[in-house]
């Protein structure tokens, strides 16, 4: 591997840039607590691992060269982000689906949080292209098997993303505790996060393959 410290710095910057993953972790953590946010983080981690595996298999090249394949994945991501934003905006609770069920228990599950994280990341073709562009730059042909190097770099990418998600989960938890005494802020937070997710969906819709 080449310039590991540069690789770590690049990942840190990428994970600090606001995106739908970060917004989702903050929303779920502030609404449902750290455990649910960690379920989201696990879903995000699995999706990132899948992107690394797809990039290693060369499937990222298909998205880079095929307009149809890229647009198919992109529009799935667009539809999902806008749908998620609208659900959050229209929900009477902090997050859709968390209203008490008939028996009085919350209707939200860890599986739903996990799937929300997984789908949010896996449906973003830019995440796959990011892996396919970034990882090869830090591989040395004379430093051992390329597959092993790709695996190690991918594990670092996934682990570092999970660490950042855990930090954002803690921040969201603190935000949620503060908002419990401020009902008006709860509404503003819900509408803000919904608007941001819809905005990310619109931005993804306007992106080209090389943007």
Automatic annotation (TrEMBL):
InterPro entries: LeuE-type. Its main location: membrane. The chain crosses the membrane at residues 6-26, 38-61, 127-144, 150-175, 187-206. This is Lysine transporter LysE. One of its GO terms (cellular component) is plasma membrane. GO terms for molecular function: amino acid transmembrane transporter activity. Keywords: Cell membrane, Membrane, Transmembrane, Transmembrane helix. It is found in: Cell membrane. It is a multi-pass membrane protein.
